[in-house]
Amino acid sequence: MSTIHPVILCGGSGTRLWPLSRKSYPKQFVPLIGANSLLQDCADRLRGPAASPYAKPLILTNEAFRFIVTEQLSEIGVDPGPILIEPDGRNTAPAVLAAALYLSQVDPDAIMLVAPSDHVVPDTSAFHEAVAIGADTIEQHQHLITFGITPDQPETGYGYLKLNHAPDAGGAAVPLDHFVEKPDLERAKAMVTDGSYLWNSGIFLFAVRDIIAAFEQHAPDLVEPVKAAVENAKADLGFLRLDPAAWDTVKDISIDYAVMERAANLSVVPYAAGWSDVGSWSAVQELSNPSDSGVASTGEVTTIDCRNVLIRSESPTQEVVAMGLENMIAVAMPDAVLVASMDKAQDVKQAVAALKKKGAKQAEALPVDHRPWGWFESLVIGDRFQVKRIHVHPGAALSLQSHHHRSEHWIVVEGTAKVTVDDDVRLVSENESVYIPLGAVHRMENPGKVPMVLIEVQTGTYLGEDDIVRYEDVYARS
């Protein structure tokens, strides 16, 4: 059997799980269910069965998330294969084609398993068995495979796959008749009763040469610009940046519309062992092992006389108390709180749109700002001062930089910092401090093997993050 190459799509910026998921740090990086993030669970699942491990995963992501991806995969011991950086999001069709064209140069006989990074698939063994069924179908019939989820209820939030006939108990692949857009409730009820309709999971399996041929037949306008973007890609710090000039001419279109709905050689592998795209807070509630009364809680939460609720506190210092609530969602973060009726779970993105319209930074940005070297959060902001907590990973370093409008005081509270201020380089230990004058060229590094944490006090006329002049940067940021 050909080697299976996982392809993880990791560039989304979903808004339906606001305020926890935001553009700066979307849901695939968040531990929504359990201790690991959805990306980590996906990568762990795509290691493959022990008897037949898959190839290293190929990742597609964007500029903003590239270091978050590598950090999270490193935490679970996954050494990724190539990480392709998309200059801009162009939906799933160009991303899948770019992965196929890249793999065709590495292993022309490869089978690629395309999976979004933000789905929940609890039964890993059953998933591997379904992939094996799909791979056998590809070997025998050269079909393109999609995975269909056996519905357990009428669902209006998913598209459906109409099979040629109802699947049998053995889970064999069934030819696809056609795709069905998200239905209304009555139509969804009828399709579930029919038995030959499955939810469209958005997970695909195909031989590299077969999917490239399908693009050449059904979406030829995508092939040349995507091929140029791959062929002219530039290596950068372990990443492969797709050529921006070529990518700029690529159409924004999903693989369903570009290829799958037009191809005749499609089969569906039925899957009934549990799946969710975690597309709403009501889905999170269902996945969070609610009590007999439907109460699901996370963090510092106390509930009294509540039914069918999801209550989450995302700060260890923030106690959330819910009393007498029914069919409600409450998600509390240090800078934003969502309170909504459960039947409005699919409409949270409307709240994000309203916040963006009023210019609220909470619409897209978290209070914690992630960087390649670690992260920081603003603790207090005044007219001419700001206090931050800065966390620097072991061995990491901030850029060599200066500021036009602010000076800084650094107080190390955990670990040891190596500090450069103009020509002076020194080690600063816990409970020691250093002053960075306005205009001084400076850098902080963590030379140790444990995280380094410091408190930074900024004072000046302007405290924006864009007041940085970089002279050197190990992460090649401009």
Secondary structure elements and their pairing?
Layout: E1 4-9, H1 38-45, E2 58-62, H2 66-75, E3 83-86, H3 92-106, E4 111-116, H4 124-141, E5 144-149, E6 160-163, E7 174-180, H5 185-194, E8 197-207, H6 208-218, H7 220-231, E9 234-236, E10 239-241, H8 244-247, H9 255-260, E11 266-271, H10 281-287, E12 295-298, E13 301-304, E14 307-313, E15 320-323, E16 326-333, E17 336-341, H11 348-357, E18 368-371, E19 374-381, E20 385-392, E21 400-402, E22 406-414, E23 417-421, E24 424-428, E25 433-436, E26 442-445, E27 452-460, E28 469-472
Parallel strand pairs: 1-2, 1-4, 2-3, 3-10, 5-11, 12-14, 13-15, 14-16
Antiparallel strand pairs: 4-8, 5-8, 6-7, 6-8, 7-11, 9-10, 16-17, 18-19, 19-20, 20-27, 21-28, 22-25, 22-27, 23-24, 23-26
Helix pairs in contact: 3-6, 3-7, 6-7
